[in-house]
Amino acid sequence: MIYDVGVVGAGFGGLAAAATLAKKGMKVAVFEASNELGGSAGKFERNGYRFQSGATLGMGFEEGGVLHRLFDQLNIDPPAMTLLDTIMDIHMPDRTIHYFRERSRWYEEIQRVFPTQSSAIQSFYDEVYRVGAIVDQLTEDLPVFPPRTLKDFMHLVPFVNKDAMKLLPFMNQTVEDRLKKYGLHNHRLFRVFLNGELMDSVQTSVEYCPAFLGYAALQTFHKGAYAVHGGLAAVAERLASFIKNSGSDLYMRHPIHKVEKSGQHFEFHTKRDRVFRAQKVLLNNSVHNFHDTVSKEMGEQSYIKALKEEKRDSWGAFIIHGGVDGAVFEGEDAMYHQFIDPQKPDDLHDGGQFLMSLSDPRDSSMAPVGKRSLTISTHTSISPWWNSEQYEADKGQMKNRLLDTVDFYFPSFKEKLDFVLPGTPITFQKWLRRKYGKVGGYMPTGKYSWLNSYSIRTGIPDVYQCGDTVFPGAGTLGVILSGMTAAKEMTR
């Protein structure tokens, strides 16, 4: 059999693309190396607990949202979920900020937390909402961006309108540039807060974040944040079921070690010595792994160069999964928490700021009765983990730093833990096959860094890519958008 499309990787981008293609009547094969769906937003189970691979909010399920549109197109129901009034609580050394979804409540919180600068901060957020809405409108039609072919440029012509022109100033400025307009660039507390949110969503700080990307990320929090019952893996399972029910195939535990061109089609070689064939290719295993996946001849055709790719900065993650007595968080409404280390509040990685997601106490699929599963995640530099001569000691030290910080804000947390499973970039390479443990795409490095983004095109005819290393980048919504964009181009 020769499939219409072969998809390497069952992350959210690959699943969204495969489901969209199957809906259009194409015969698709999805190859996943592990035994779990969802990639970096997947799950695993241990000791009666279900853990999310990352501390991930569910977003895009609101009316008109990315996942709402996708599920509508597929005519399937999303899993059960809880809409969060409080997106997360941000715990800072001297105060806790309640990050509310609803705009009026968020503005009231701004008045409470930042009383002397509340008017300027609210004006800043007015701009965030306005510009974010324009970005949403432009991405709704799934244009290929950055454009790489004449057709890509031609398809962008309809977007050159009055609203798009309003976006231009924000494409050559950083978020910090915009803060200067409102006199907020030297407001230390607000910068610490914003840096935490941007590190979570865009992998960088106000100083280096392109304004339009930062604004799009910041306003997304306020459109609708959800605790998905069963974790985001439940979304992946719905998409996988649709793919199989549509007559396409999903091959778990089938790592692809080489894709090569053979005549008029492509061959997918698995480590089980099986060979599959397809007319087109979609790579959802990250650009980091690109040259390890395609043949040398195909790699030479691509504009993605191995040496350049090796030098590009990307974060890793240090992660902790654990089970805890639910009594520790009794009376707490928030299920997502961001912590700022009271000793080093300006550190944005390696424990200086980190996220913790708690399972919904009403979701029995995530933890035993009276217990809650948790996932803690912080950005970390990759190279020290690979070059460490005392790896286990370093892992233990980082684990203790994170747990001690949570315990600082929630006394008795550590003594109420059932068990703790820490992971490093080496863990991510082992279990998720992310090269060197790189996750979350590329960190923006300045106002024009978006021009260095990879589009869904690889430069090889009939070979496409999607995922967190492809525009619009990190986060489940960005990954899904890249997969839907790839599917659209493959069926033009």
Brief account:
With 492 residues, the protein is α/β, with parallel strands linked by helices. Helix content is 36%, strand content 22%.
Strand content: 15-25%
Main beta-sheet annotation = 7 strands, mixed
Number of domains: 3
User: What fold name goes in the CATH topology slot of the largest domain?
Assistant: FAD/NAD(P)-binding domain
CATH architecture annotation of the largest domain = 3-Layer(bba) Sandwich
Query: What's the CATH C level of the largest domain?
Result: Alpha Beta
Uncertain parts: none
If you compute it from the alpha carbons, what radius of gyration comes out, rounded to the nearest whole angstrom?
A: 22 Å
Mean pLDDT: 92
Number of strands: 19
Report the span from N to C terminus: 23 Å
GO biological process, one term: carotenoid metabolic process
InterPro entries: Amino_oxidase, CrtISO-like, FAD/NAD-bd_sf
GO molecular function, one term: oxidoreductase activity
Protein name: FAD-binding protein
